[in-house]
Design brief:
Distance between the termini: 54 Å
GO molecular function: 1-phosphatidylinositol-4-phosphate 5-kinase activity; ATP binding
Keywords: ATP-binding, Kinase, Nucleotide-binding, Transferase
Order of helices and strands: HHEHHEEEHEHEEHHEHEEEEEHHE
Protein name: PIPK domain-containing protein
Number of helices: 11
Shape: globular
GO cellular component, one term: plasma membrane
InterPro entries: PInositol-4-P-4/5-kinase_C_sf, PInositol-4-P-4/5-kinase_core, PInositol-4-P-5-kinase_N, PInositol-4/5-P-5/4-kinase
Helix content: 25-40%
CATH class of the largest domain: Alpha Beta
Structural class: alpha+beta
Length: 363
């Protein structure tokens, strides 16, 4: 079993409850401690996330089914060599070094959070305000996080041989695999304000960084999202609320994940323009059309989904403060201005909202 398969199996077992033991034997405890790849995860703040899943109408049986291998044996027991089949590895998608899985049914995305200052900020400071905000704002664009997994103490987790923390969240691209239309391409952008100083891009004109490194920076969105006045105002108002929470918690460097799906002429406007709009969790409630299920552009060409992601970088953490000091020192020589991770949370919010405003064209 590969390292990825071992991690996938551990994630599934933590959610389906297969590894739960009230009183594990000493031999089992010792074996778990010295395991370097197949970690034992616990579900942090389980009651908080169960409450959120209820808010989003995610049934517990359906949720566990997404993490249950599809080829269980007839007697209901999972084959030892098939635990990983419930998850599909999609590798390293970003600059943070995180690894990603999706559930086989496409509903959920699992992201590792390897950096201590990020997962400790989310767990200890952001989680409760986030949960309260999501319960009070059903239309929030903040990505829906359904579980937070922490590895029990082990050699593998201590040495960083395997990711010790994972987030389970909605998959904003849910439904792409089921879209069988010919010549139809779903496009995605991971958007941040690009007016900040990015050393990989701006030092020596980017000559010191590889193309692969620079490709992991935020995307640039070309074109416009054409919306009615009401839809544009709602988009702005929702982002205002969401980013106000993030600024209050001192978060920076978050991004807008945008999905563009070609609309179909024959589909109903109230269905968002998709041939088969998801009417099941995790993308609902609220029912379609919404930015979770898809909002049709005013020109009828596309359906857009959006989610605010990666809000785990807090300005007051030691790592962030060290980075800020380093960039301030560099600016004495070469005045490039702040990075997206060294600016203030209010200033980042201002530029982020400006970026989102500039993407929208009112029809």
């Amino acid at each position: 079993m590969s390292a990825n398969e071992a991690i996938a199996a551990s994630i599934c077992e933590s959610i389906t409850g297969e590894h739960d033991e009230d009183n594990p034997s000493f031999t089992q405890t010792l074996s778990n401690y010295f395991n370097t790849s197949k970690l034992i995860f616990t579900r942090a703040h389980e009651d908080q996330f169960k409450s959120l899943r209820q808010q989003w109408e995610i049934g517990e049986d359906d949720y566990r089914a997404s993490f249950t291998p599809p080829n269980n044996s007839d007697d209901g027991k999972t084959n030892d060599d098939s635990n990983n089949n419930a998850l599909v590895s999609i590798g390293d998608m970003g600059y943070s070094g995180s690894t990603f899985f999706t559930t086989a049914d496409g509903k959920y995305l699992i992201k590792s959070v390897p950096r201590h200052f990020e997962h400790s900020f989310f767990r200890d400071e952001l989680l409760v305000p986030y949960a309260d905000h999501m319960r009070a704002n059903r239309n929030s664009l903040l990505v829906r996080i359904t579980d937070f997994l922490e590895a029990q103490r082990s050699v593998g987790a201590t040495l960083g041989l395997a990711p010790s923390h994972h987030l389970v969240m909605e998959n904003t691209k849910f439904g792409e695999a089921a879209d069988k239309r010919d010549d139809t391409e779903w496009k995605t952008w991971d958007l941040k304000p690009m007016s900040y100083f990015y050393p990989e891009r701006d030092v020596a004109g980017g000559a010191l960084s590889s193309d692969e490194t620079k490709e992991k920076l935020a995307d640039g969105f070309e074109g416009k999202i054409v919306h009615s006045i009401d839809a544009a105002a709602e988009f702005r108002a929702t982002l205002q609320k969401d980013t106000a929470l993030l600024a209050q918690c001192n978060a920076v460097d978050y991004s807008l994940f945008l999905v563009r799906i070609p609309a179909t002429a024959e589909s109903k406007e109230e269905d968002g323009g998709l041939p088969d709009v998801p009417v099941e969790p995790p993308l609902v409630p609220p029912g379609p059309p919404s930015w979770k299920t898809g909002v049709r552009s005013a020109d009828g060409k596309y359906v857009y989904r959006a989610a605010v992601l990666d809000f785990f970088w807090a300005k007051h953490k030691v790592h962030a403060q060290a980075m800020t000091g380093l960039i301030n020192t560099y600016n004495v020589v070469d005045r490039q201005g702040p990075m997206s991770v060294t600016t203030t949370s209010e200033e980042y919010r201002e530029r982020f909202l400006k970026m989102c405003d500039e993407m929208v064209e009112v029809a």
